[in-house]
Amino acid sequence: MPDFTDNLKPASPDGTTILRQERSQSDVPEDELAKHLLSRNDFLGRQQRILQVLEKDPLFNKNKQMNLSRPERYQLGLARAKKLRRYQDQYSWDAEDVSMSQYLCDDVSPYMVHYAMFVTTVREQGSDEQKAYWMPKIERMEAIGCYAQTELGHGSNVRGLECQAQWDPKALEFVLHSPTLSASKWWNGSMGRTANHAIVMAQLLIPKSEGSSEFVKKGVHPFIVQIRDMKTHLPLPGIAVGDIGPKYGYAPMDNGYMLFDHHRIPHSAMLSRYSMVDKNNGTYFQPKNAAVVYGSLTYVRAQIIMHARLIMARAVTIAVRYTCVRRQFSDRDSTDKSAPELAVLDYPTVQIRILPLLATAFALHYTGEAMHRMYETTRAQISKGDFSRLAVLHAQSSGLKSLCTELAANSIETCRRAMGGHGFGGGSGYIQLNNDYLSKPTVEGDNWMITQQTASYLIKRMQAAASGKDKPQDEIEEHCRQYLSERKSHRPDQLRIFDKDEDILEAFRRRSRDQTYRAHIERNERKRSWNSLLIQLRKVSHSESQSILVSNFYEAVNSSDASVSPTLRTHLLTLFRLFAFYTMDNEARDFSKANAVSEDDLDALPSKIQDLMAQVRPHAVKLVDSWKVPDFLLDSALGRHDGKVYEDLFNRAHRLNPLNEITFNPYYKSEEIVMGGGDDLKKILAKL
């Protein structure tokens, strides 16, 4: 039967025409910018190559995915994970290719923790002998792993973990045991139904003396443990393990629980690159630096920062394209009654929600790249026995993880709200993106909690600077000494943020040092309790992290990179100023207290921000295009590259919605739910 809707078109001008005009008015060198952003590890080439594989495979079709149940989503997720692994063999994909395939698939993989943390932990904390044994099994996916740290009763407080690994000197084994219900491992991804092995973080207990029944705690250590039978995949005796159930997001991920009942594991299970228990005499050798035990978390935090830029770029891409296509109301001051409706993005009240986020995506990118380099350098130093940079890496990665994931998570919701009613719909492309990403402010260190780690390090450096002993330990302490010297000798001049970009950097740095100094005084001189300072400490951490974002953005834009054309550099500088001034405006009181920026300049910030947004507005579409987020990944009617917003929204509702394939009986006097369906309700009731 003919469908008259097949011939209907949107009102003119349609989205395709609008986006074509948007792109034609901008001089942003899109391809140059894309290469500038995404050239490392041939990101763009990999994306194009792997996208061609996934787009052809019906297993990765997302048309009706949102209508599946949780068990179906896990099964689909596992099927996709297996298929990607087979593609790895078929096409000889390397680790970066695998990572790209998971990124494009956009379904959190039941194998994710295996790739992200299990492999990393064994590689970085296993001895040479352990790596020689385990890495081939891991690479062949015979040993499929997870990372079992968080417990039902403890998450961020790793020292408080209850799971025990007790050394038995007679049997030469460790005994894993969960002494309480709250000692149950909990939330650990890939553990519920997928993994057959786990990195179990447990409290190491050593006999107090030979033959003693008393034990001494030696802290939390990693153990590699088989948790399921390799043939039946059923839990081993003494292990209770399963999936924790539905969550806010991550439908395909089997976040699990696990308890041990005096489960014995061999001496070789303890990963022993940095610490070990002597098999012959039970002597414990502790790591030179305890923080290396949490090296996998530091790695993941660095990766999370890199990922945040792509999440924000994706959210902003949808918002910018849609708010250019969407028209609402004519110019209120126009005398022409037939004046066309304005693009939603032309309203400053929409610009202020979206365009600073566009600039922030670039800020996150440059700091993500800097953190990647810092991580690689630090790990290389550690491999040579040099732990001098580990504390800085840990402090910065903690603070930046907190700030960057908060910015990215908030950006999704801010963009969604800026798009009005359609932002709430399934065609927005935000539902799964939002639900899945909302875990990031919590996982790998709660965003409020881990700022203490950054603040603690900064206060120690300020305290060391105040003592004036020896040479500065690092550049942070050197800056602290400079700040104290200026504070002691004279009141530093307020900075000319609108005249010199370098003064913007200095303003953020001075504000950060001022926040650290105030916390140092409260803690070390006035002896206030740590708990009473927690809110202030979060500001200390965020101030430093914002300073890092601004500094990395500026340094990248002003580097001597000859591949950046003058035109592109001009656009990047505009984005830099927009990000810096928008951030400064939101924290204006701090800059005033630090005597970094004058009250007059702070008062002028809103006007400056609006001027910068007006400069960015004509180029917004090409700026988001430069992130090269494919439609396959966006899965958004609103954010389509071709602008066919309304055509896609209607197609999803009218042709792809499975609910419209069923005729229902709405009359309450009848027990029937589906016309001619009989006892369909019983099938639903059986699942409740």
TrEMBL record:
GO molecular function ontology, one term from the record: acyl-CoA oxidase activity
Keywords (A to Z) from UniProt: FAD, Fatty acid metabolism, Flavoprotein, Lipid metabolism, Oxidoreductase, Peroxisome
Record organism: Extremus antarcticus
Residue ranges annotated for the Acyl-CoA oxidase C-terminal domain, each copy included: 502-669
Domain annotation Acyl-CoA oxidase C-alpha1: ranges: 294-459
Family under the similarity heading: Belongs to the acyl-CoA oxidase family.
Biological or metabolic pathway of the protein: Lipid metabolism; peroxisomal fatty acid beta-oxidation
Active-site residues (renumbered): 444
Domain Acyl-coenzyme A oxidase N-terminal per the UniProt entry, residue ranges: 31-144
Pfam families: ACOX, ACOX_C_alpha1, Acyl-CoA_ox_N
Localization per record: Peroxisome
Phylogenetic lineage: Eukaryota, Fungi, Dikarya, Ascomycota, Pezizomycotina
Transmembrane segments: none
GO BP: fatty acid beta-oxidation using acyl-CoA oxidase; lipid homeostasis
PANTHER family linked to this entry: ELECTRON TRANSPORT OXIDOREDUCTASE, PEROXISOMAL ACYL-COENZYME A OXIDASE 1
Gene3D superfamilies noted in UniProt: Acyl-CoA dehydrogenase/oxidase, N-terminal domain, Butyryl-CoA Dehydrogenase, subunit A, domain 2, Butyryl-CoA Dehydrogenase, subunit A, domain 3
GO CC terms, sorted: peroxisome
Region called Disordered, residue ranges: 1-30
Co-factor(s): FAD
Residues the record lists as binding FAD: 150, 189
Catalytic reactions of this protein: a 2,3-saturated acyl-CoA + O2 = a (2E)-enoyl-CoA + H2O2
Protein's UniProt name: Acyl-coenzyme A oxidase
